[in-house]
Design goal:
alpha/beta, nine-stranded mixed sheet, six-stranded antiparallel sheet, 15 helices, 23% strand, globular
Length: 527
């Protein structure tokens, strides 16, 4: 019998006996968070709301920071990354550390292209780009909604150069990527579901017949909506001027250049996207179509998350990777916040964007964001910052692969994480994960202290291994790091699956980390 890598102390047994009401309450709260977070922008917005409710003060990176002892703060970057922290009253730069949990807000999805207007065989389609490494076949025949942010003109700007953004979530089944029927693809069940990512994954928005009919019914009046905003209007005056100049026997070079730019630049969104899409966004935002400047939108599964299984033990939902870890980190930071205020550490949760595509962005883990934040907290002394970093720990919290009942051979035979059996410590000797013996032991001890079981994972030698923000952060900061996560099935599918208990486990262990790691670290003499 393979050895067990789970830690079940008397405390963990008591945790397993937590009331089903408590487990389901936390699971339902998480599902609600997922349903309200169809894009990284919305995940950050929901996290912001939890932090504000818990008394956190918003900072701006462009401002000078005044960080009072005992203060609780947060800031966002690009509205898709959020950093929140509590400065304990007893914390001193150089003498005490940073207790940090890191996760990410993004998930594989379909994203609207800069120019998305497509028409094929009588259908209006939306051009999309495949973001991350998704199980793309799962996106076929799903009802898709639209969410993200829209950049808009600021009506209060006197110069006309002002912009602001609005979040948008059209929670309706607007689009669908239809599969090819079995009658025209007889070998699909033998050869596998093969797709061309450039030509086969364009969602259907409408038919040209109905679109033309709607225009006809509307009477084609200028005030009827489609293309009627300020972005498409105003073309008559330049045309009149050009005609007047031509009649005088000359060509105004400036006017000619302006006309060429207007024709080529595709400035107005309705020149790059179907007008019916722009009109629908405008109605949702209660603005004129011409007020819309740019789009940053994703498609998401319209079906809401659910508690499932005959014993209500599973969560079926999109974006479990990695909203479960993001949600748990923020909840753990907000709960028992008074104890963190009185403590001797900086307790921090950081939710990065762009993990699914390598983290190399201004708001990704492979940026200077976290280091700059920690240095601003530590003050001007580089010596104090380095000493504090060496008294710290970074928990890289990202979902893990549960053993699959139908594909058990895909797992290493002695490292098979199971749903309900606690948080998974992920190890890879080639440093795809940043865990080492010290950080693994410290995390297991935190599990024992919190009454949460832990288990281990590594890949087979003949399998490739994904990576996380753990190695990136460890390399940038030289900080103790452990890679962990909740065991799940169907990772990177349009809908994923995990256990209800593991939401509770995650929050409880993270709370113990914030509360007790400083004392645990003080007793650890291993580098």
């Amino acid at each position: 019998t393979p050895p067990s890598y789970s830690v079940f102390s008397s405390e963990s047994i008591m945790a397993c006996m937590a009331s089903s009401e408590t487990l389901l309450r936390r699971a339902r709260a998480f599902v609600k968070f997922v349903d309200k977070s169809p894009s990284p922008f919305h995940a950050v917005d929901e996290s912001r709301a939890m932090l504000v409710k818990a008394g956190f003060k918003e900072l701006k990176e462009v401002d000078a920071w005044k960080l009072d002892a005992g203060g609780r703060f947060f800031f966002t970057r690009n509205q898709s990354t959020i950093v929140a922290f509590v400065v304990g009253k007893k914390w001193k730069a150089g003498s005490n550390g940073f207790n940090i949990i890191g996760a990410h807000t993004d998930s594989p999805c379909l994203r609207v292209k800069p120019t998305s207007k497509r028409t094929s065989e009588g259908y209006l389609q939306v051009g999309c780009e495949l973001y991350g490494g998704g199980l793309w076949y799962t996106w076929f025949d799903r009802d898709l909604k639209l969410a993200g942010r829209v950049l808009m003109k600021d009506p209060t700007s006197k110069s006309g150069n002002g912009y602001f953004h609005r979040l948008v979530h059209i929670n309706e089944p607007l689009l669908r990527v239809p599969s090819l029927c079995i009658h025209l693809n007889r070998t699909v069940n033998l050869d596998g579901f093969k797709i061309n990512k450039e030509t086969h994954v364009f969602p259907v928005l409408a038919t040209t017949v109905r679109e033309e009919l709607n225009k006809a019914v509307a009477g084609g009046s200028s005030g009827s909506g489609s293309g009627s905003g300020s972005g498409s209007g105003g073309s008559e005056e330049p045309k009149a001027k050009r005609q007047k100049t031509a009649a005088a026997g000359g060509v105004d070079e400036g006017e000619a250049r302006s006309a060429l730019l207007d024709a080529c630049s595709q400035r107005a969104p309705e020149s790059r996207h179907h007008s019916v899409l722009i009109d629908r966004l405008a109605r949702e935002l209660e603005c004129a179509p011409g007020d819309i400047v740019e789009l940053e939108l994703s498609f998401a599964d319209h079906q809401p998350g659910a508690i499932g299984g005959i014993n209500q033990e599973f969560i079926f939902a999109p974006r479990l990777d990695n909203l479960l870890m993001s949600h748990a980190a923020v909840v753990a930071l907000c709960e028992d916040v008074a104890a963190k205020v009185e403590g001797d550490a900086v307790s921090m949760a950081v939710l990065f964007d762009h993990e699914e595509i390598g983290s190399q962005s201004a708001q990704g883990a492979d940026s200077s964001l976290l280091e700059c934040t920690l240095r601003r907290i530590a003050g001007d002394s580089n010596e104090a910052f380095v000493r504090s970093a060496q008294r710290s720990m970074f928990i890289s919290a990202d979902m893990a692969h549960a053993i699959h009942p139908n594909y058990a051979s895909a797992h290493e035979s002695r490292n098979k994480p199971e749903i309900h059996k606690g948080l998974v410590i992920k190890t890879n000797q080639n440093q795809k994960y940043a865990t080492n013996a010290v950080t693994s032991a410290l995390f297991r001890r935190l599990g024992e202290m919190s009454g949460v079981p832990t288990q281990g994972f590594c890949v087979k030698n003949d399998s490739t291994c994904g990576s996380t923000i753990g190695p990136i952060t460890a390399g940038k900061l030289g900080m103790r790091t452990v890679d962990i996560g909740v065991a799940q099935l169907s990772m990177h599918s349009v809908r994923e699956m995990c256990g209800t208990d593991d939401v509770h486990y995650s929050i409880e262990l993270f709370k113990t980390f914030y509360k007790s790691f400083s004392k645990l670290e003080a007793g650890c003499r291993a580098e």
